[in-house]
Amino acid sequence: MDSVGLMPVLVVSGVLFTLGVIGVLTRKNALIVFMSVELMLNAVNLAFVAFSRQNASMDGHIFAIFVMAVAAAEAAVGLALVILLFRNRVTVKLDDLDRMRG
User: Fold this and answer.
1) Any domain includes 35
2) Is residue 1 predicted with pLDDT exceeding 70?
3) Which of 39, 37, 40, 63 lies closest to 50 in space, CA to CA?
4) What is the CATH number of the domain that holds 32?
5) 102 is a domain residue
6) Long-range pairs for 46-52 at CB < 8 Å and ≥24 separation?
7) Between 9 and which of 29, 34, 50, 101 could a Cys-Cys bridge form, CB atoms 3.0 to 4.6 Å apart?
């Protein structure tokens, strides 16, 4: 079975990362912004694994596991912040969050 080359995988990774950046810069909903950050982290994981496979080492896989752990922690903390924000302000729109006090 033939494997996919490095360049198509990096193109997909770049497209995913670009979509994540566009989502972070253009969306006003906090949940969509967090999902866009997760999309960017997954794009980086894909690039790590592709380079690791190309170089026949396990370094990229190990970095990808660490990035997944950080992404899981970020998702948990981010979701907790969004829930707390919705309880206090009854909105998750980022434009409505102009003050830090409750």
Assistant:
1) yes
2) no
3) 63
4) 1.10.287.3510
5) no
6) 46/9, 46/12, 46/13, 46/16, 47/9, 47/10, 47/13, 50/6, 50/9, 50/10, 50/13, 51/6
7) 50
1 assigned to some structural domain:
no
For residue 84, give its domain range: 6-93
Distance of CA 40 to the CA centre of its chain: 4
- 88 within a domain of the structure (yes/no): yes
Number of domains the chain contains: 1
- Reply yes or no on whether the pLDDT at 79 is more than 60: yes
In a 3-state reduction of DSSP, which class is residue 29? strand
Could you report the per-residue pLDDT of 17-66, keeping only the tens digit for each? 999 999 999 999 989 999 999 999 999 999 999 999 999 899 999 999 99
